[in-house]
Amino acid sequence: MPDDSNGSLTDELAGLDFAAVSPEEFARIVKGLSGRELAEVMRGELRARVIGEVFGRMRQQFRPEAAGRLNALIRWKITGSEELVYETLVADGTCAVTEGRSEAEPRTTLVMGDADFLKLVSGNGNPVTMFMMRKLKVAGDVGLASGLTRYFDIPKA
């Protein structure tokens, strides 16, 4: 996605209807942006829209056949200008997503910055590599965290 300045890139992305962007197109957009550009995009109102849309799609991207009998609460903490917390409950072949922190104890918690979150959920980041480079922090069940991507249909850009 060409741009002359960060302002025009942000303006261009702010004008997108993220609900109409396919997962494959989203993956291509993220792949085409540098870490600095991703950080710039993830400022202000656009950040909440993008993250909200990603979590809003998790139920559709969920692969119940891959999850089998998995029963786990996964807490996601996305750091940045402010910490956003979402929880994904995988149980009985379903996936439910809620915004905010519940009182329940998660089986695993994933903590990462905005740009790394976008890379992970768009298939542009390898979770094991991100963990080894300390871009992704995991508390709790590391084995579950390392295999989470197989439970979701994540496009490749």
One letter per element, helices H and strands E, the order comes to: HHHHHEEEEHHEH
Largest sheet: 5 strands, mixed
Q: Please state the CA-atom Rg, rounded to the nearest Å.
A: 15 Å
Q: Shape, please?
A: globular
Explain how this protein is built.
It comes from Streptomyces halstedii. It holds the Pfam family SCP2. This is SCP2 sterol-binding domain-containing protein. One of its GO terms (cellular component) is cytosol. The chain is α+β, with helices and mostly antiparallel strands and 157 residues long. It has one domain: SCP2 sterol-binding domain (Nonspecific Lipid-transfer Protein, Chain A). A 5-stranded mixed sheet has the order 3-2-1-4-5. Helix 3 crosses helix 6. The longest helix is centred in the middle third of the chain and has 17 residues.
Helix and strand layout, with pairings?
Blueprint: H1 6-14, H2 23-31, H3 35-41, H4 45-61, H5 64-67, E1 72-79, E2 84-91, E3 94-99, E4 108-113, H6 114-121, H7 127-132, E5 136-140, H8 142-147
Parallel strand pairs: 1-4
Antiparallel strand pairs: 1-2, 2-3, 4-5
Helix pairs in contact: 3-6
Domain SCP2: 63-152
InterPro entries: SCP2_sterol-bd_dom (IPR003033), SCP2_sterol-bd_dom_sf (IPR036527)
Protein name: SCP2 sterol-binding domain-containing protein
